[in-house]
Specification:
about 270 residues, 11 helices, globular, binds zinc ion
Length: about 270
């Protein structure tokens, strides 16, 4: 495997971008698909959605393109009927528990806040509380930071996460930029850099690594591809002369395997 795209939305890519799986196969890219579905109208549909992610990942992995998935409720995918309830419904927690027993499910994601409403904060906290009590220690948590008000929202997320210290070693803060990485680094989190138009560019990644050379061991590069493949990510996989091969391997694949606790031999031998 040349790269592990540690954050994408492969269920959407497989519907909307017909050349997705063959592109990943040809370029030897595997992936982790994170839960995000704005079409969900009721929380009761989440178990089926997560089962669908599982089925997709099992199929691709059996066919030689290794894919993993995360389950969870994205801040932009909160169904209206979750607004009235007082805790995570058992339909949701039972389904999450079931998936955490599947080796292709690497944990929780994507969680976080987007516009920062009280509703988003409530659902985010419920999931973190559940993770503190029930998430197996082998699993991980992927956290989204938004495009809008990025610095202020990252700050707010980091403050909120102070209430969940035991989870810190298991958390990835994603979509960091040169402007937000200082904060994330200061708290000791593993971070994701998303190479995509409107998120980070390969030059942004270089800036971060130049400032924090040692963190080449704690940064994961991903595409967050959803409706379409992210060209900046794919181009970086092919051409990355600012990094030597060892650095590239860490950023593109090894750090993701280490953080998410994945042994590739196990998956490849299936
Ligand atoms: Zn995403």
């Amino acid at each position: 495997m040349k790269a592990l795209d540690s954050h994408c939305h492969a269920d959407m890519l497989s519907k909307l971008s017909p050349d997705f799986i063959e592109t990943y196969r040809t370029k030897q890219i595997g992936g982790i698909t994170w839960s995000y579905n704005e079409q969900i109208v009721s929380f009761k549909h989440y178990p089926d959605y997560w089962d669908e992610l599982q089925t997709l990942c099992e199929g691709w992995t059996q066919n030689g393109v290794i894919f993993f998935y995360l389950v969870g409720i994205h801040p932009r995918s909160i169904p209206p009927d979750l607004k009235g309830v007082r805790k995570l419904p058992p339909e949701i927690t039972d389904a999450i528990m079931k998936h955490t027993e599947n080796p292709l499910c690497l944990g929780f994601g994507e969680l976080g806040m987007d516009s920062g409403t009280l509703e988003e904060e409530k659902i985010f906290r419920w999931q973190l509380e559940w993770a503190e009590d029930h998430l197996p220690k082998t699993k991980r948590i992927g956290i989204h930071t938004p495009r809008q008000n990025k610095e202020a929202m990252t700050e707010r997320l980091l403050r909120l996460l102070e209430d969940y210290r035991p989870l810190h070693p298991f958390i990835l803060i994603d979509h960091v930029t040169p402007a937000t990485y200082d904060m994330v680094y200061g708290e000791g989190y593993v971070a994701g850099v998303t190479l995509q138009q409107g998120k980070s560019s390969p030059e942004d990644l270089i800036k971060i690594i130049e400032k924090y050379p040692k963190m080449v061991k704690a940064i994961l590069v991903n595409s967050d591809g959803a409706k379409e493949l992210s060209q900046p990510y794919l181009e970086w996989i092919d051409k990355h002369e600012a990094f030597d091969e060892e650095q590239f391997k860490l950023l593109a694949v090894s750090n993701a395997l280490t953080f998410f606790n994945v042994s590739l031999e196990e998956e490849e031998s299936k």
